[in-house]
């Protein structure tokens, strides 16, 4: 099968910084670099083959290390993407991003972008100055995916190391490997190589145009607390005292919570704080425990969402005035 020719596609590349835009003084080093210092024009210049894939419109949205990503930048990015996709002359979006929080940004966009056009995030594990830098090929593949009609209505995607992942499923699984991103529970949606794109499955949960969330309201404060041997309730009490609106527990195993934390969470829910149980394990799903736990605590099961994505969904739910535990549970069961 020959690669699909896509020269008529116009793709907006929005740069936010990250390792893909990183720079180091020693090409043999892949750590100790400065992230987010290479501008989007330089990123594009490093991939001359892009001119054979699509017409490119480039914008520098931010120049940060993605460990410093903020909810304000999420909102600004989503709003800019929606504005661009509303234009007839933009066929898709590629966002270059740091790997540290890419999965959180991708899931936020998955729920707030209001278009069927492709939105593809990509990144790199090695800075642009490194030997065998992975950023240029990842960028080329991301633009290739965004330029394909088969990528429409797939929700927000992540193109990385020749694989295509759904924003809902993907997570970073390595601190150094170039295949750092995986979808542990369900696998990739498809692949991209040498100009060819193939989807082998589709995301089945509602997203983008089917999701009721928007970026008009400020996101409420939601924090994450881990459960572990000998856990103290100090963090939960401090967050509640500070006015947090929601807490996500990174529980052990099937979202189980230390007895000390259980009491703290029960007290928090009585003060109107929403509580969601996720797991720190890395894959699998958290079952709702009914009377054994969730009913007593007034808590919600995150299902297959990891703690970081559960935080994203809880913030959006609370911003949409979804505040009752049963309604929040329905939201997690749906999205």
UniProtKB/TrEMBL annotation:
Q: Which InterPro entries match?
A: AsnASE_II, Asp/glu_Ase-like_sf, Asparaginase/glutaminase-like, Asparaginase/glutaminase_AS1, Asparaginase/glutaminase_AS2, Asparaginase_C, L-asparaginase_C, L-asparaginase_N
Q: Which SUPFAM superfamilies match?
A: Glutaminase/Asparaginase (SSF53774)
MF-aspect GO terms: asparaginase activity
- Residue ranges constituting the Asparaginase/glutaminase C-terminal domain according to the UniProt record: 222-332
Q: Where along the chain is the active site annotated?
A: 19, 99
Q: Which Pfam families match?
A: Asparaginase (PF00710), Asparaginase_C (PF17763)
Q: Where is the L-asparaginase N-terminal domain?
A: 10-203
- Positions with a binding annotation for substrate: 66, 99-100
Its family remark reads: Belongs to the asparaginase 1 family.
Q: What is this protein's record name?
A: L-asparaginase II
What organism, scientifically named, is this protein from?
Caballeronia humi
């Amino acid at each position: 099968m020959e690669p699909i020719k896509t020269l008529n596609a116009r793709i907006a590349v929005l740069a936010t910084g990250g390792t893909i835009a990183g720079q180091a003084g020693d090409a043999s080093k892949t750590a100790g670099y400065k992230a987010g210092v290479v501008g989007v024009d330089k990123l594009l210049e490093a991939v001359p083959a892009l001119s054979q894939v699509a017409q490119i419109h480039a914008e520098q949205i931010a120049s940060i290390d993605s460990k410093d990503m903020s909810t304000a930048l999420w909102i600004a990015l989503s709003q800019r993407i929606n504005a661009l996709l509303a234009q007839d002359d933009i066929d898709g979006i590629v966002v270059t991003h740091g790997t540290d929080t890419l999965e959180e940004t991708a899931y936020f966009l998955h729920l707030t972008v209001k278009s069927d056009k492709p939105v593809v995030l990509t990144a790199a594990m090695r800075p642009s100055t490194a030997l065998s830098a992975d950023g240029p090929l990842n960028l080329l593949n991301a633009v290739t995916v965004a330029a394909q009609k088969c990528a429409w209505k797939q929700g927000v995607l992540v193109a990385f190391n020749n694989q295509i992942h759904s924003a809902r499923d993907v997570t970073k699984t390595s601190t150094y490997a170039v295949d750092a991103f995986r979808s542990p529970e369900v696998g990739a949606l498809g692949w991209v190589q040498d100009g060819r794109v193939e989807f082998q499955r589709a995301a089945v949960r509602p997203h983008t145009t089917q999701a009721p969330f928007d970026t008009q309201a400020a996101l409420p404060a939601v924090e994450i607390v881990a459960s572990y041997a000998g856990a103290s309730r100090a963090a939960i009490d401090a967050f509640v005292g500070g006015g947090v609106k929601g807490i996500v527990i990174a529980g052990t195993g099937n979202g189980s919570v230390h007895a000390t934390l259980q009491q703290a969470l029960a007290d928090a829910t009585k003060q109107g704080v929403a509580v969601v149980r996720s797991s720190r394990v890395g894959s699998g799903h958290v079952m709702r425990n009914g009377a054994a736990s969730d009913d007593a605590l007034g808590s919600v099961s995150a299902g297959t969402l990891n703690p970081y994505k559960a935080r994203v969904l809880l913030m959006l739910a609370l911003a949409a005035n979804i505040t009752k535990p049963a309604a929040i549970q329905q939201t997690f069961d749906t999205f």
